[in-house]
Amino acid sequence: MSKTVDAVMLILVICAFSIGPIALIWGWVRWSKRPKMMTICSMLSLIGFILATCSALLAIGSTIYAQRIGGFGFYDPLHLRIIRWGSLISAVGILIGLGGAWRKSPLRWFSVASALGTLAYWIVVAEGE
């Protein structure tokens, strides 16, 4: 592989395995401690954050399932469907989170960062396929 591809993969791995989980945990802690604002932007940020969390839970669940069955086969249709759904959920989370980033809220940038982290995870998993 070229140095550019290696650098991009390194950035994706860092986003997937450090920035994404940190943003998810920190965002839920921050959301639970702050007063809840009920504006359109804050609701969009919360929805984007929930979608990023769902994508992360799908990743965790599929990893546990793969461990129990002995791993997915090469180009396993179920695994490819899981990757597709996880990527779609993350991408929608990014778009909705960006819609909520215009005004201040507890999850303003956490929704976007965590959704980007989960999308990076799904890209890394797809690349491994």
Number of strands: 0
**Helicity range:** over 70%
Radius of gyration: 16 Å
Structural class: mainly alpha
Largest sheet: none
SS strand fraction: under 5%
> Could you tell me the mean pLDDT?
92
Low-confidence stretches: none
Question: What does this protein structure show overall?
Answer:
The protein is an all-alpha fold and 129 residues long. It is built from four helices and no strands. Helix 1 packs antiparallel against helix 4 (110-128) and helix 3 (77-99) runs antiparallel to helix 4. It is globular and about 45 Å long. The two termini are 16 Å apart. The mean pLDDT is 92.
In a nutshell, what does this entry contain?
With 129 residues, the chain is mostly helical. 80% of the residues lie in helices and 0% in strands.
Itemize the secondary structure elements and their pairings.
Elements: H1 3-33, H2 40-69, H3 77-99, H4 110-128
Helix pairs in contact: 1-4, 2-3, 2-4, 3-4
Descriptive tags:
single chain, 129 residues, mainly alpha, 0% strand
